[in-house]
């Protein structure tokens, strides 16, 4: 997440440059995630298979957007989280390539610091929804996010909303407009909004989707993967005929 209300990330071009230069492959690997460049997970309606950013980053394109500008950014991470530290080091190295020095601050109570109005420029966050509805996913993304840590769970460092003022102007309006739509039109519109939020407003740089692993014996056939991301359709499975 980028704080668009202050510092170097108040400039949309800088946020875009930062999103362009990030090595999403390396960031996703820090969490054992599947790399992505889109805000919507691939299991949701509205997701479209098209590249918004190069997964390995592009220093040349990002530097061109910076126009020689340099600056600093303060990134907050929770204490006791090795993966958070690994991801922060990737961010530091990537943004240093375009002239942004990222200073990392480790906090025992990151949620409390953000909710009290502490000034940071970057934070590693995530969101999840338990049903396949793209508009609701985007609404939850701005109204309730979780701060990543080593052992995420329901009791994790969740925030009730993205910190006040972090969102670029107009983001709430675009997402709330989806509430007036229904059915396929809503899902398609949510996909278009998600693309614009990722490439125009650039409120965040999405980089990973947690996978669900399943082990299936070789003799199991009729393997049907459901559109929503819980893996195999158990009711469809069958035994392969024996020779």
What would your notes on this structure say?
The chain is of the alpha/beta class. The protein has two domains: 7-211, Dipeptide-binding Protein, Domain 3 (Dipeptide-binding Protein, domain 3); 213-243, no CATH class. Helices cover 33% and strands 14% of the residues. The protein has eight helices and ten strands.
Sum this structure up briefly.
With 243 residues, the chain is of the alpha/beta class. Helix content is 33%, strand content 14%.
Please describe the structure with a list of short key phrases separated by commas or semicolons:
8 helices, alpha/beta, Dipeptide-binding Protein, domain 3, 3-stranded parallel β-sheet, 243 residues, 2 domains, 3-stranded antiparallel β-sheet
* Low-pLDDT segments, ≥5 res: 151-155
Helix content: 25-40%
Sheet with the most strands: spatial strand order: 3-2-4
Rg, please?
19 Å
Sheet/helix structural class = alpha/beta
Strand content: 5-15%
How many domains would you count in the coordinates?
A: 2
What general outline do the C-alpha atoms trace? globular
Named at the architecture level, the CATH assignment of the largest domain is: Roll
- SSE succession: HHEHEHEHEEHEEHHEEE
Report the top-level CATH class of the largest domain: Alpha Beta
Beta-strand segment tally: 10
CA-CA gap between termini: 55 Å
Main pleated-sheet profile: 3 strands, parallel
